[in-house]
Amino acid sequence: MKEEALQYQKEFFAQKTPYLQWLKQQKTEDTMVSGKQINKLPFSSCMDSIKCFGEIQSEQIYLFVREGGILTKNAEQRIAKCFFVSEKAETMLVYADEDYAGTLQELYDIEENCFDTAVIEPYQYSTEKGNLYYRGLPWFKPDFSPDTLASFFYLGSVFAIRGDVILEIISKFQEEIDLYELVYWIFQKALNRHQLRKNIGIVHIPEILYTNDNPNKIQRMECSEKIQKLHQKDFGQEKVSIVILSKDHAELLKHCLETLIRYTEYENYEVIVVDNGSRLEQKHQISSFIDTHNNTDKKHRIYYFYQRQEFNFSALCNIGAQYATGNYLLFMNDDVEVIDTIESRKWLNKMMVYAMKSHVGAVGAKLYYPSHSEENCNRIQHVGITNMGIGPAHKLNGRRDIGCIYYGHNTQNYNMLAVTAACMLIQKTIFDAVGGFDTSFPIAYNDVEFCFRLYQRGYFSVQVNEAVLIHHESLSRGYDFSPEKQQRLQDEKERLYQKYPLFRATDPFYSPHLVQWKKDVDYNVNYLYACDKMAKPVLLAAQGSKWSSDIVRREGFRERLYRSSNVAGKIYDKITGRNLLMFQIDSVLQDDKMVTITGWCVQRNHDNARLFKNIWLVEETEKAGVGTIYVFDLPSKLREDVAELFAEDKSTENVALSGISLLFAKQGLRHGKYRIAVLINKKYLLYIHDQAGNLVFIKIDGNSQ
Hints:
It is a single chain. The chain is an alpha+beta fold. Helices cover 29% and strands 25% of the residues. It has 19 helices and 29 strands. The strands form 5 sheets. Strands 9, 10, 11, 12, 13, 14, 15, 18, 19 and 20 form a 10-stranded mixed sheet that branches. Strands 1, 2, 3, 4, 5, 6, 7 and 8 form an 8-stranded mixed sheet that branches. Strands 21, 24, 25, 27, 28 and 29 form a 6-stranded antiparallel sheet that branches. Helix 10 packs parallel to helix 11 and helix 17 packs antiparallel against helix 18.
């Protein structure tokens, strides 16, 4: 195989297998630990009886390893270190991350015979019997998550426990207990320590220390009805004060209230509507509806507080909380709708199960976008907030709610660092104790700031995916798409991290090994290819070299030719071969600091493995001639959707890596106005236009510095 074709195959394979590339970067820590021996105990299920493991000795450490899988090199030493190093003396339980073994087809949907042996051989592993396999489907777990454990056995396939801790738990139960129950009670012991501000003794090693033998077992959701009943014990009908902010949306508010009252199974609640200045006509409609309701329904009173003032979400929620007479506060947007199904009517019951626990702070619900007739399933708007490198993000936003997404993040109840205040439940005593919402965050990130504060005070927030509502997102206030609103959003995010610097790009319930620096609707490994990294420009010409000037002038000549005669332009393209170029720019996103360009480019009737692409910034000048030109290299980017477009065109080869993906900072570039263009094979300059056919420019000014 020619070197050029081999390099193309290697890059194609690499971009199909980000986890394999991530594994190559990981360094195995040499850990030498002297001390007590670790005893390995194989288990088949977390429902295995603890009696099956024989006599437990208090001075030993027991490593539970699921049958059939493989402990990675140094796994035992890494786990032992967590118990035997002096500062870890109080460690009770240790668990780690895991992945799966299988074929390329099973793990990555790749046919092995599609690639040369030299491409795939470096990624192969071998069993003791000499059987070859690959690794994939990593499960990066959260840190200590007591409520997640109650949903399913998220410790998975490898964990270790001190012998004396096992004996202590067993001694408390006359009846036989299984592994799941053992771990649950250890977590409850850790939770008690946590509330006393002591070392909880639960350690999560954020490393892959175990490989499962069968990818068909992926997302093994082991649940225990007994554990769930223990965790979700019966509760009384405590009074809930539902606080709803609304202004100038009488019909929207009316629909929210009607569905709330008609379809909510939970009985003991009041509603407090806080209006910061609706128009008189709207105010009258709201008052009339509420008066009519209160005259007919004495059980669920609605209180209406009207006062003209600037919109400040935090301040208005705090006002509503002051008027509340319930022991629990539920903050709800006026564009939320309760669903009329048997299970959906229990939404508040399901949230209250968690809100009543002493260790729980904020409780959130799963929110759907309104469904459209052409869709046969719901789309997720919110299943918790993850604090990524790019900032707080609603996970799985826009995803179809089908199947089990990354170990039940759409189906199970999970501890999360934050939940949205579009529907947030909390004990009033906790709300008051932490000082309510921070009024210095009037529009954005007020719920995130509040949840950060709760976590710092020792409370765990819970995303309850069993409680499902519809959220007509941002109908009340509109989307933050304008440059001014986007800047405000950026400023408030920066203030958030100035207040909580330890949370910058950190989330205890979201692994640092998962995607951080781009919006991600899945849970993918955080591996950056060359095309994902910040690009640095080369200054090609301060006042235009002859070569670059010739290319720019040639493109200018073509533009003039098309303006004079469309036929003449097409003849010119055919003579020069430019008609064989096809490209599409999906987006050019820019703010004061950054520019992101995505798209693709293909040359028909050619081998695209040899296609050379650059991005040029060409300065617009008032005088004749060519001004400053910046050049950015374009590393390969996998675009399998584009490859499918040309699948039947046998003369157009190696299209899969035809993507355009460029991220660069404006800082350091000369001030000016620049056209954006794609340079192909150092010969063809294709200026980027928007959907209306207008040239796309970027502007570099003092704000970019």
